[in-house]
Amino acid sequence: MNPKNVTAKVAQLATMGLLQIVQLTNRNLQVLPEEIRGCTEMRYMSLMYTHTQTFPSWIKELKQLEYLHVEGKATIGLVSLPVDMFDEMSSLTTLHLGSNVALPRLPSFHGLTNLKVLALAVSMALEELPAFDSLHKLERLVIAIAPLLDSLPDFSPIHDLKSFVTIDRGTWCCNGFLGECDLQNPMCGTHPVWGTPAATCLPTNRTEKVASRATLDAITKFSKSVCGGIIRPTDSQPSPTEETMASCGGILYRHCEIPGIPEAICYNARFMGIACTASKFPIEMRRRQIALGVGDPCNPEYEAWLGCK
Question: Which segment of the chain is annotated as a signal peptide (predicted)?
């Protein structure tokens, strides 16, 4: 499934240098056109499933950017970013990088002095995070599915963190970073979905990758939302295929069949196509919505199995 290429169209819209918002979903924009460079008042950029693999070196010149969201796919996403990309982006308040499975490292966060929201999701190759030295105003931190991450930076520069959530494995939860190494913890075992190898204990005599007091305090404060467990096969929502989409016929919340799975639902996770998934989360979400009378009105023709009458 190849999305429509809109590079020429984006270049045309940016020619005058007046573009302030770029929001694309399921369109092909592998490389930002040079014309974007002149849009110095760019405030908002959301690139979801656009096959974007890197940014040009001049991306740092978009100094007024306030919101940046780049969402890849399971098969294609960011593979590299300019090392100085964020050095002058002091206006950026939200940074969301998701499903960039081959991205091994992130640029320095040095310039992100006004960042309030940092969300990193499905970062399969990411082994460490940049220092948080400039993230004084960070309020919300989400780290979801970063199975190779074995430590966290010092949290002491963060003055008023209001939310810290982790989803799925981070070996720092059990490899001794927090104190005692426990390789029997499922978080440190071979991952049942991604197949990531089992973790090893950090050396007890190490001088690096030592949790600071501020980091430990943050983990204690948000203990109910960090290191909670790993994703199981019935929890994950794989990217849609032609087959899983065809079984749904474009109908949300319809019951669908997956061999060996008692319940499956037609759902469009993260703005992808409506496809059959065995994940329990959209099933439970929709049942609760119907029971509470919130969300989209239910259709008993397709949602009776969820409690719709």
Answer: none
More confident residue, 169 or 56: 56
Question: pLDDT at residue 185 above 70?
Answer: yes
Give the structural domain span for 294: 237-306
pLDDT for the residue numbered 1: 64
Q: Which residues contact 184 (CB under 8 A, 6 or more apart)?
A: none
Asked whether residue 262 is assigned to any structural domain, the reply reads yes
- Cα(first)–Cα(last) distance of the chain, in Å? 36
Please give the Cα distance from 198 to 136 (Å, whole number).
34
- 83: Cβ contacts below 8 Å, ≥ 6 apart: 107, 108
- 70 φ, ψ to 5°? -125, 115
- Cβ atoms < 10 Å from Cβ of 283: 19
Model pLDDT for residues 64-106, shown as the tens digit of each residue: 999 999 999 888 999 999 999 999 999 999 999 999 999 999 9
Number of domains in the chain: 1
* pTM (whole model) above 0.70: yes
Burial string for 145-165 (b: 16+ CB within 10 Å, else e) reads: bbbbbbbbbebebbeebeebe
Bridge partners, 46 (sequence order): 23, 69
Separation of alpha carbons 102 and 150, rounded Å: 17
pLDDT reported for residue 260? 86
- The verdict on residue 247 lying in a domain is yes
Are 7 and 32 within 8 A, CB to CB? no
The SS3 call for residue 94 is strand
Dist CA 306 CA 287 (whole Å): 5
